[in-house]
Structures are given as structure tokens and as C-alpha cells.
Amino acid sequence: MSSTAFVSIGELRKGRHAVSQILDTVASGGCSSSGGAGKASCGSSDGPDDMPAEIWEKVKNHPCYSEEAHHHYARMHVAVAPACNIQCNYCNRKYDCSNESRPGVVSQKLTPDQAVKKVLAVASEIPQMTVLGIAGPGDALANPKKTFETFRRLSEEAPDIKLCLSTNGLALPQMVDEICKYNIDHVTITINMVDPAVGEKIYPWIFWDHRRVTGREAAEILHRQQMLGLEMLTARGVLTKINSVLIPGINDEHLIEVNREVKKRGAFLHNIMPLISEAEHGTVFGLTGQRGPSAQELKAVQDACMGGANLMRHCRQCRADAVGLLGEDRSEEFTLDKIEAMEVVYDLDKRRAYQQQVEQERQAQHAAKAAALEAAAADAGMDAGMKVLVAVATEGQGKVNQHFGHATEFQIFEVSQGEALFVGHRRVDLYCQGGYGEDEQLPSIVGAINDCHAVLVSKIGACPRDELKAAGIEPVDEYAHEFIEAAALSWFAGYRARVARGEIVHTERGDARIRQGAFTAAA
Fold this sequence. Notes:
CATH architecture of the largest domain: Alpha-Beta Barrel
Number of strands: 18
Radius of gyration: 23 Å
Number of helices: 16
Strand content: 15-25%
């Protein structure tokens, strides 16, 4: 093993002590997976009363570390890191389509100078952009000179923007000092295994100590580096998010063990993502027919990890040059040629004033949810154990504010008497194209949300409304432009009342769930 990987026994002890302190904080209420009214989230549902103030400051407006914040705040990635020091069977950085949303894809690779110019341009036009990340298209730490030069410049020229990087962890231990030097206090590590026998099925090779290493040895080295790097970051107070790609038949059951092991080492969040394996992307898994998981399989693994490391469920598997809110990409607005024609004015006061408005909107969202929960608590006579999934069409701001036909994804909430909990999202084909509905898209859209009891939208046409009803999914447009959680809880209260009156029969989501005419009666 390269000598650069070694650290002192004292450093390791310090790291394990810091891990223990963080886990004590988690056990006493910080970053749990449940929360009541008025709470914001750190990937799930926690707020400022649930964690130390210094951690809350790091997560409150970070769209990846706070599920609630991702409705309001934007991120961007700059593609300054093209080289990579490992090969993954699910990755191919050679392909790019402007409509693709997957890691490793970029349209333009940037120099540090170009990256800084682009960040300032985006920040001047999108004042809610609070986070800058370097996520490739290779590995940020396999390109340390370009990565840290970009961060150095931005820490001076855009001091209010949070800095993040993503890495596979192979070079992480020897880079921790440099990460802390530039106040990079959010690091994502992709960890797909803690057993090299699993790892050798995912990683054909790594480049280590000036040579290519393959097979079990490569997986063993990568595993040791990832665990050591995670512990060292925890020791230094850096928040870590662990990304894991769920690969059916290879690491699906194993990810429960991954969750346990990263929690032991102080991971702040665990993001379990579905494998993207379309053959046209040219990956090894894609070309060999390895399938990705269904939305239901993904949720089942995530649910099995509840109680371990806190889960992130709102990831969109962003491109390495993504710009905007999670779930949208405005990178085409900020190509290098367009930036050259822009008048860039980085107005820090204007950015702060805009973000204060966002915080007022968040408080209104909290108040609406609290009122809905209070109303729900009054229905004590109904089935308190009932839970359903609800799909929501939204353009952001935490509201039901998107037409069914304009949605390219639906956010999924698990709704009960005491909570409306975000549990994931489902990408779908666009229904409205050129001003007309494409009816052949409807079966795939309905199939994507077929385990949901209702879909909340701002508006919906007659044809998709009928198709959804026929599939047993209630189309709901009466809560247009209301806050999502309050709308979902209000709809659920009405749904439970209809069940109590005998108008509909509640079962677990199935084709025979709704009595004939129930939606007409409820309209």
C-alpha cells in the first residue's frame, strides 16, 4: 500500500472518538428519520432544535443535505475533474446527451478559471443557488490541482456559497488536510460495498500506487481507503454523505450492512440510488443486461435501512455540470459562450435578501403543515394506523404547482394521520408535448405511480384523469398552489372520512381498491 495512506494511531483514535460523539448526538435526537410539525430536514425531517447550531448552519440551505431545502435552494456542479482513478461497471463518461441526468455526464469540461466565471454568473442570476460541488465527470480527488484551485478561488470570490466535493474515496485519506484548508465541509463518498467479495463484482480495476490493480485486491484497497477517509473526515467535523448504487442481485441486500458500517464511522446521510443501466449508455452493466431496481425495490431497501444511518431519498443523480433546483437542469442557460455575453454582477446583499424571502416561505410551509397535523389529530376515531402513498407534481417552493402533463417526475409522500413524509421520486415521460397530450405515454406514467392512492396536481386533462381513475389512482387538483405536506394531509383526512362513510374501501394499493363511482362522489 502507498505510504500516503498511513496516518498516526493518535489520528485514528481522535477520529473514532469524534465518531462516538456524533453517534451520541444522533441517538439523542439529531438527524433521526422522523419529526413533527415545524421541523426542517437534514435529509429527512430534523430542524434546528434537533442538532448543534453549527451543524444546522451547514445543512439548513443545502438542497442535498436537507429534503425541505431542496424545494427552495439550488445547487450547481462544475466539471473540472475529468480523470478518474477507478473503473466502475455502472459508469461510462464518454456519452452525453443534453436530456440525460446521470453522474459522469457533462457537455463542457472547464478549467478552474472558466468554472469560477460560470459560478459567479449563475449566482448572479439564481440567488437561491447556495451550493457549489465538484462531482466529476471523473473523481474530484483524482484531479486535485484543478479541484482545489477552483475551491481556493471561490472561497475568496463567493464566500457565501457552500463548497462540496464527491469522491470514490480511493485518494481521500491523503487529501483530508487539503479539504479542510478550504472549508469544504460537505463531502460525498460513493461506497457500494464493505465486503471486497461484493466489490470485485462492481469494480474491475483501480489505479493505485502507480499501477493498475484488479480483482479482489483492488476491492480490498478501495474498501480500506473509504473507511479510513470517512473516519478522518468525521474527526475533522466534515459532514459526509454516502452514495450507494443499488445493483439488484449484487449488493441489494448487502447495502443494509453498508448502512450499518458507515453509521458506525459517523456518516451524516446515506443516499441509496438506483442503478442506471440502459444499454445505450455503454456501461459494462448496461451491455451485459444487468437491470436496475424498480421504484418499489429501491424503497424496500431504503425502508430496511431505517434506524441506521439517516437516509436521503430526494437525490436526482445529477449530471456533473447540473445547475438549478434538484430535479431541474438549467446548464444550457450558462454555456461558456452565453456567459461571455452576460453582465455578471455578484451582489452579495441581493443574494442574502432573496434568501431571506425564501426563509419566510419556509416558515409559511411549516405553519401550514402544523395546522394540517393539528386538524388530523382531531380525527381520533378513525384508523390511526392507515398509511398511503401520494404522488405530487411540483415545480418547487414546496407547493402543488405543476400541471400533470408538464411533469417529468412525481415526488412521493407517505401520508398517515401524524405525518406526510417524503420517501422518493419517480421519473416519468413528459405527457404534454407541443401543446398536446401524448396518450401513448400514459401507461408508463401510470405504471410509475401505480402504488400510489392519489396524485396531487395543479391541473389535469380529461384523458389522463380517466386513465388514472381506471387504474385506481385518484387525480386531485383541488389543492393547486398549496403547500405539499398540508395538501397531502388534508386530502388524506378526506380520504379517511370517505372510508369511514363506506364510500370507498381501503386496502393496500391494488386494482380492486376503489368502489365504482367513488371518485365521482368525492369530486
